[in-house]
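HUMAN: Can I see a protein plus its fold?

ASSISTANT:
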Amino acid sequence: MLLYNRRTFLLGAGALGLLAACGFSPVYGPGGGGDMLLGEIALDAPDTREGYLLTQRLEERLGRGLGGRYALSYATRVTSEGLGTTSAGSTTRYQLIGTVEYTLKDAATGAVLSTRDTSAFAGYSATGSNVATLAARRDTMERLMVILADQMVDQLLLWATGQAAQ
């Protein structure tokens, strides 16, 4: 038993050494670039429920950037697709496919710094009750916007890390 724990420790220490050798650095660590975005991105005011959910998650992750150095504009698009059907022809499963196209700009000059897009999907089952189906759709929309916002944050952090390295 002691030998197994020792092996695990030695393998873990070796893996850390390899990460240090490859130039790995945490995004929020010194020189990582993550700090340059926290509280510095002013988001467009949402005009749809999807936009509100997306903005809410972005502000959770990046902070509210009123008067920040950057401005982020975005456009969401969500489509619904029926997946499963019964022998009677009614749809039993739906998939929401969401896409967000966004542009990060310098707030002072308006210069475009990065333009990207991201997409994801989430599904829900249609039940016998319309109320339950609508609640499932609403919950799925919330999950989809969280997924899309998290992907946006990941892409923005990678961009910021590249900028910090320059």
